[in-house]
Every structure is written in C-alpha cells, then in structure tokens.
Amino acid sequence: MPGSTRPQPPSAPAVRAPDGLSHAALWTAAAHAAEYLRPVPHVRDPWAADFLHTAGFEGGPPGDGPMQRLLPDWQVVRSRFFDDYLLTAARSGCRQVVLLGAGLDTRAFRLDWPTGVHLFEVEVPAVLAFKERVLDCSPVTCGRRSTVGADITGSWGEKLVAAGFDPAGPAAWLCEAPLYFLHPAQVTAVVATMTELSADGSSFGAECVNAGAVASPLVAPFLEALATVGAAWNWQLAEPEGWWAEHGWDARVADVFTLPYALERLSPYLPLVGEAAAECAFLTTGTLRGSR
Questions:
Q1: Residue 54: what pLDDT?
Q2: Which parts of 60-113 are beta strand (E)?
Q3: 206, 195 contact by CB (below 8 A)
C-alpha cells in the first residue's frame, strides 16, 4: 500500500475509519494512491494515501480472482471519466456541481476548475468529519466548497438548498458509485430528488451495474465475495438509457474501449476476463429531458 504523500504529525492519535465510510470508498482511495505514484497518472490525488494512513486501512476487496485484480484500474478509469464529465460541464457554463454520496472524493481540491464553480458534497456527517481531519485546511481549486451532512437514502434535498444550492440554476450531478449499493426503491428516491432540484441545462453522471454481466462465471464469484463484506451490488440495469428516460433524463453509456486511457489500462485484462466482464458496469452520463 503506498505510504502517505504528506508528512504526518508524530503525535497524531490513531483514527478509526468512521461508520458510514464504505469499503468502495477505501478501495478507490487505494487505487488513487497507487495511481499517484505512476510517472504519468490519469488521476492525481495526493490525499488518497493520507486517507488510508489515517484510517489504518490496508488491503482490498475480498478474494483473489481476475475481477479483484482488475478493480483498481477500473476505478482509475471511472474516476478519470467522471473528472472529464464534470470539467466539461463546468467549462460549458455550469457553476453548480453536486457529489452525491461523496465518500473520500477530493475533486474540489485536485481538479482545475473554471472560475466560480460551487461544489457540494453530500455525505453522512461522520465521513465528512473524517475527511476534514485529513484534508487539514487544504485550499480548494473550485470557487467554493460546501459540505452537506446527510445520508442520500434519507432527506437531503432541503439541506442541499440550505447550503446554497440554487434549484433555478443548472447543476452537474455525480453519483460515481453509491447507487448500485442501494436497493432499487432507494435509487428511485435519490434520482427523484435530483430531478426535482434540476433546472434546464442540468446533467448527471453515474456508474450503473450491467445486469447482463453479473451472472457470468467471472463476475458472479466477485459479487459473492463483495457481499460477504456488505458491499453487494443491489441495483442493476439491463437498459440504462430506458431507465433514465423513465426518470426524466436523456442518458448515454460510454463506449469504454474508445477511451485511450481505458484501453491502456483495461486491455491487459481482456485475455483473463473478456470484454463483457470488463464492462460489468456502465459509465453513464446524460442531460435533463427537454434541456436546450
């Protein structure tokens, strides 16, 4: 596991990872920490190793199959893809960015935002407090960052507005990974709130599990292993464009292997897992239906 990228106070007491911090958030931080040590990283996250150090976390997902070995590179590809989505939205004039289930996300600090972006992180209070300890007053690269202490499976819309979100202005929403750990009714409720708060010109990004891949001989054991640590993939889609259309959004799924950085990182695994297993999740973006 890569060590911390910043000096740690020698007298700092050990900190246990807070309740509500998902396994997926820590696995993503581990992937980012390893990526940051590459000569030309696709994701530059100097705080990732500090999160792991402070939480005393070592390891990765249970099991040792090809999907477990692929996961860190997939997480880097996913992060880079949604980095590009958010920056494109912001550079096109959107000045509100909302990270739902933000976890250990550091985009407010590590991306080159245009002037005036207000970034909101919606996450449970204990995880936000843990992040603040590690971030240690690091300067943001966006215009303003607001944290919203709320569980996305509960009532979070009013808290987001109270934090300064303007429902009359367009927003770029991101549900990078948390949706597929939720049950379908919970996902529907999250998306309903997101849609209600979205103005013309709003967009979204979300990772969605490919229902057509989960029963494959390579993916199924991986999912069984994840379920043993409470990280089951509960929400799956066969036709993501149709599902999102029913909920008010025009969606499109990225053709991952047309992305140079994805091809670079994922193609070495194809002889082991095949293209279908490598695409066991959809990288999905879209716009509010009827938006100009």
A1: 94
A2: 96-100
A3: no
